[in-house]
Amino acid sequence: MSNPTYAGSVPVFKQLLGALSNALGKSAAHAEARNIEPAALLQARLFPDMFALVKQVQVACDFATGVCARLAGVTPPTAAGDEQSFADLHARIDSAIAFITGLDAAHFADAASREIILRPGTPKERRFSGQDYLLHYGLPQFFFHVTTAYAILRHNGVELGKKDFMGVY
What we know:
By secondary structure, the chain is mostly helical. It is built from seven helices and two strands; from the N terminus they run αααααββαα. It has a single domain (4-166), classed as Four Helix Bundle (Hemerythrin (Met), subunit A), CATH 1.20.120. It has helices spanning 4-7, 10-33, 38-42, 53-72, 86-101, 130-155, 162-166, and strands at 115-118, 126-129. α2 (10-33) runs antiparallel to α5 and α4 runs parallel beside α5 (86-101). The relative contact order is 0.22.
């Protein structure tokens, strides 16, 4: 029997990151076919006070790697955050998928009860059990940024459907 914390994290993040990568591929093709400057899509946002597409993808990748790393008891990787093209975003997603794929499921054995501390020693310190961290913080944050990236692309005319959001499952 597989570990439920592993099963509820790594495969879910991989599925949605793969779908996001495919949606970005369709977006690049959309921009090229319609002679749209890629930066118009990459810097698009739903509202002025929201992150642009590039940042939505970066944050989604950061949540996928950070949540999985903390649950596995390893240090989350860092990324420069200097992506400026569709190719850069594909590389960022590929790196995130490679990292979480490389985590051994055995490291998730006690993840549900492991204490996760965010922003330790600061006024914003938050303490979670691994299960609460995954279910009530990590996954909702990740889904928010993936969904917002998808919505930005749809809002800008990229032909995507529910299958594009869901990916292969």
